[in-house]
Design a protein that fits this description.
elongated; single chain; three-stranded antiparallel sheet; 2 helices; Double Stranded RNA Binding Domain; alpha+beta
């Protein structure tokens, strides 16, 4: 996850500190939906981000981008689209 979060930081020009990371199962079975919640800090602003999906890595990236978007909206810099992040 560190590489993904560092990439998001580079793309946005923001350096965020990950304070908390949680994964919870929302459904059961092989194709279970997981929900990732992150808590990040940037310049004395703390926000939560959430992401869901069957792929924990994608849900983790979505959660971090969600949190960074909230920070960007608070600073009026504009949100970053999840589609702008290229994965493996």
């Amino acid at each position: 996850m560190d590489a993904i979060y560092n990439a998001v930081d580079r793309i946005t020009g923001m350096t965020c500190k990950l304070l908390d990371y949680q994964v919870m199962s929302k459904t059961r079975g092989k194709d279970a939906q997981g929900e990732v919640t992150v808590r990040v800090l940037h310049e004395n602003r703390e926000v939560l981000g959430k992401g869901t999906g069957v792929n924990t890595v994608e849900a983790s990236a979505e959660a971090y981008v969600n949190a960074v978007n909230k920070l960007l909206v608070k600073t009026k810099a504009g949100p970053v689209s999840g589609e702008e992040i290229q994965g493996p």
